[in-house]
Specification:
The protein is of the alpha+beta class. The protein folds into two domains: 3-102 and 248-265, GIY-YIG endonuclease; 117-242, no CATH class. The chain contains six helices and eight strands. It has helices at residues 3-18, 44-52, 79-93, 155-175, 201-208, 226-236; strands at 24-29, 35-41, 70-75, 117-123, 126-132, 140-143, 192-195, 258-260. The strands form two sheets. Strands 2-1-3-8 form a four-stranded antiparallel beta sheet. A four-stranded antiparallel beta sheet has the order 6-4-5-7, with helices on one face. Strand 1 and strand 2 form a beta hairpin. The longest helix has 21 residues, at 155-175. It is elongated. The relative contact order is 0.15.
């Protein structure tokens, strides 16, 4: 085993001994404090101990052990919260040793597709919702929403797209616009949809993330639509609309609870 890997595993052993037995996310950093890898754990001490006792196989992923010189962790309320936080951080930071889990679809030349904005316009007494790659000159734009849109296969992406579609279904149900749900909102994250709903300050606050509450006059689906809307209603209660992309970078690590870096390795 090379000296660099031994040094990295020594950092991990020391960090594991100091880590709490709590849920959280952890970060491997190199000599220059660049993030190598982000992981999650229900028990940080146990998970770091597993890393520290790994027998590197020579795989590309195991190369991270030879580079790690510092460990940082951030506590979470529980393992489920750690899962969501890990997904958010991987999306924002793109660590080199984390697998690409379908964070965004690609455009025709292979680059990441732009994160969409939800744009709402008043059109012929209806609200027209569209997903657009930039802020237009007209209408109200919300976002951007990096997890929203077709082709986003991450857990956050699926949940956010389902939540957006659930919002449209509830607006349709509240407007009582027909007996059969339109096919456009039977699919995930439709690129455009019009609904016969009046403009609403509470809807604006909900979409802008300044209020987690569903619009007051639409707190529950109409009784006749309970079967088709109960699941979407639950989805819209999730806090994805308040999760527009944060300014996440290496400096964000200063907010973490504990860091570990032996003096000999800095």
């Amino acid at each position: 085993m090379g000296e660099s890997i031994q040094a990295g595993l020594a950092v991990l052993r020391a960090a594991a001994a100091d880590a709490p037995r709590q849920a959280g996310v952890y970060f491997f950093l190199d000599q220059g404090n660049e993030i190598l890898y982000v992981g999650k754990a229900g028990n940080l001490r146990q998970r770091l101990r597993q890393h520290a006792t790994t027998e590197p196989s020579g795989s590309q992923l195991d190369q991270r052990y030879g580079l790690v010189r510092r460990v940082v962790w951030e506590l979470a309320d529980d393992e489920e919260a750690a899962v969501w936080r890990e997904a958010e951080l991987i999306f924002a930071l793109r660590p080199p040793f984390n697998a690409n889990t379908g964070l965004r679809a690609t455009d025709p030349i292979g680059k990441d597709a732009p994160a969409p904005y939800i744009v709402v316009r008043e059109v012929e007494s209806k609200l027209a919702f569209t997903l657009e790659p930039s802020v237009p000159a007209d209408g109200k734009a919300y976002g951007c929403f990096p997890h929203l849109g077709k082709g986003v296969a991450s857990r956050l992406g699926i949940a956010c797209s389902d939540g957006y579609t659930a919002l449209l279904r509830l607006l349709w149900a509240a407007a009582k616009d027909g007996d059969h749900m339109p096919s456009a909102i039977t699919k995930s994250a439709p690129p455009s949809y019009k609904v016969a709903a009046p403009p609403s300050d509470s809807l604006h606050r909900f979409l802008s993330g300044t209020s987690p509450r569903w619009p007051r006059n639409s707190s529950k689906p109409p009784p006749t639509d309970q079967s088709s809307c109960s699941r979407p209603y639950a989805a819209t209660r999730m806090p994805y609309y308040g999760s527009t992309p944060p300014a996440l970078n290496a400096s964000a690590l200063t907010d973490c609870v504990t860091t570990y870096a032996p003096e000999s390795s800095t």
